[in-house]
Amino acid sequence: MIRSNKIGSFFIEIGELTYFTRRFFKELFSRPFEFKELLRQCYSIGNRSLMLVCVTGFIIGLVITLQTRPTLEEFGAESWMPSMVSISIIREIGPVIIALTFAGRIASGIGAELGSMRVTEQIDAMEVSGTNPFKFLVVTRILAATLMLPLLVILGDAIALYGSYIIENIKGDVSFQLYFNKVFKALKFSDIIPATIKTYFFGFAIGLVGCFKGFYCDKGTVGVGLAANSAVVFSSMLLFIIDFIAVFVTDIFMKFK
Amino acid sequence: MMDPIENIQGKVETISSGKRMLEIKNIKKAFGNKHVLNGFNLELYEGENVVIMGKSGSGKSVMIKCLVGLMQPDSGSIKIMDKDIATLNQKDLDDLRTEIGFLFQGSALYDSMTVRENLEFPLRRHKHKFGDVVDTNQLVEEALENVGLLHTIELMPAELSGGMQRRVALARALILRPKIILYDEPTSGLDPITAKEIVDLMRRVQRLYQTSSIIITHDIDCARVVSERIVLLVDGVDYARGTFEELAASDDGKIQAFFK
Ligand SMILES: Nc1ncnc2c1ncn2[C@@H]1O[C@H](COP(=O)(O)OP(=O)(O)O)[C@@H](O)[C@H]1O
Ligand SMILES: [Mg+2]
After folding, report:
1. Which ligand lies nearest the alpha carbon of B59?
2. Where are the transmembrane segments (chain A) (predicted)?
3. Nearest to A129 among B105, B106, B121 (CB)
């Protein structure tokens, strides 16, 4: 009845997600804490996206350098390459693209996994055997995603910079030492810290949406596919919103300095 | 129209004399405007096997989930071993649940864990039920031995056949030595021979651990073999109750429909 209205159902969804988030924080700080499962999830989530992040990072580095170089050459400014590329990768492109690939891999994975556990009554089975499934499944996965994405982004950024160095080395004969000297000269803490903080929020959003969609998956075989799919769509959308807010807030802080 | 039911109920009272393990009184449950249960009643006495029969979608799973607190009924009361489950806090509810084994409709084994980890799972919070010094491995192996599947202990559930999964799920439901076992369609989706194996196993368990059980089933053979008493769930109420023979002999059309 209410759900037939598209806009209405969007706001209902936001409300339910808010409630879910509140429950996460409530259960996060109550005992017992599922530490072993958290480690297992960190390993599994990190391990599943490691290869993807490395490849994506490397390609970002190559492509951005290849695309930007001709323009800067025109102005005779190719010596700016390292600083320009590193700032754009560290501040924006690295975190966002790696978070998007992470969302594609992890949000859908979590959505499908929890969704099928819901449909096949595994979540009910946990509950009757005295383990709080929210704590065991949801809290650990959200935390793991929040903790792992920043690490993966740092790794991805480093690989992207290395990719960029390779192109510079081939095209402009820039040595490793010179390249990274320039990079570190250009980068300030005010580039790195806000970018890293925002990746925690990205990771949190991805874990949260994946768990939310999976945990409340509809019964039936289509439910699981739908949960996985909408987890990716919804979390990617959320990433851009968070990114916008993060850039906005950072901008305000920079003015005050 | 109400006559046959009352006759049958009258007889039941004389059959069951033991301690009352659980009692469901007049529970109602609706999803939106879809009324699934409209005042369902059930009692289970010690050592008894009660079979619940009802059409698919008639609310049997909803009823059994209300019973263990996985769903809350809109009204009515549920007492397990004289405790009203609506008034229990989480810890007491969890403790009470250790007295209840639940075999889910599709086995519901955790598919990311091995058979061993599946069986260990209920023990992680409730080991204290067996005292301070308890060997988890021994409990797990013993439970698997009882269902004849000790050799699968390190396998993943996906590597087992449907019947084996059902047996492992039964072992998991029994690992805390519950007094009451709830079976949600224990033979559904299995071929007749495997189904018969499961039924035999259920009877063995009943004798071994002296449990009381509620068995939801479509399988008329299973109902005949295991039931001391049958309750028919029709239109959200306990439409009729009695022994297999009594119900099979009834001339009520709705009852007859189950025995064709
Ligand atoms: N969580 C739920 N939300 C909405 N409807 C439900 C839910 N669970 C069960 N139902 C509905 O209740 C009815 C009874 O379901 P169920 O108890 O699973 O039937 P069965 O007797 O086959 O086990 C079905 O029509 C089902 O659609
Ligand atoms: Mg059912």
Report:
1. 1
2. 49-66, 142-162, 197-216, 228-254
3. B121
Helix (H/G/I), strand (E/B), else coil: A131: coil
Place of tokens 């699981």: A224
Whether A120 sits inside 8 A of B108 (CB atoms) is yes
State the total domains in chain A: 1
The H-assigned helical ranges of B58-111 are 60-67, 90-97
Q: In the A/B pair of chains, how many CB contacts fall below 8 A?
A: 47
- Contact list in B for residue A131 (CB cut-off 8 A) is 121, 124-125
Q: List, for residues B157-195, the tens digit of each pLDDT value.
A: 999 999 999 999 999 999 999 999 999 999 988 898 999
Instruction: CATH number of the domain at B149, please.
Output: 3.40.50.300
Structure pTM? 0.89
Q: Which ipTM did the prediction report?
A: 0.87
**Closest residue to atom 2 of ligand 1, CA basis:** B31
Angle (deg, nearest 10), helices A81-88 and A140-172: 160
CA distance A179 to B147: 67
Q: Is B77 left (phi over 0), alpha (psi -120 to 50) or beta?
A: beta
Residue B40 at interface with chain A, using a CB cutoff of 8 Å: no
Q: Which domain holds residue B218?
A: 48-64+94-259
Supply B120's token pair: 């260990």
Q: Would you write out chain A's pLDDT as a tens digit for each of its 257 residues? A: 445 578 888 888 889 999 999 999 999 998 888 999 999 999 999 999 999 999 999 999 999 999 999 999 899 888 888 999 999 999 999 999 999 999 999 999 999 999 999 999 999 999 999 899 999 999 999 999 999 999 999 999 999 999 999 999 999 888 999 999 999 999 988 889 999 999 999 999 999 999 999 999 988 778 899 999 999 999 999 999 999 999 999 888 888 76
B43 located within any domain: no
Cα separation of B106 and A123, whole Å?
Answer: 13
Residues B35 and B171: their CA atoms lie apart, in Å, by 35
- Select from B70, B105, B126 the Cβ nearest to the Cβ of A127: B70
How far is residue A98's CA from residue A69's CA, in Å, rounded to a whole number?
Answer: 23
* Residues in contact with ligand 1 (CB, 6 Å cut-off): B 31, 36, 54, 56-62
Minimum CA–CA partner of B182 in chain A: A128
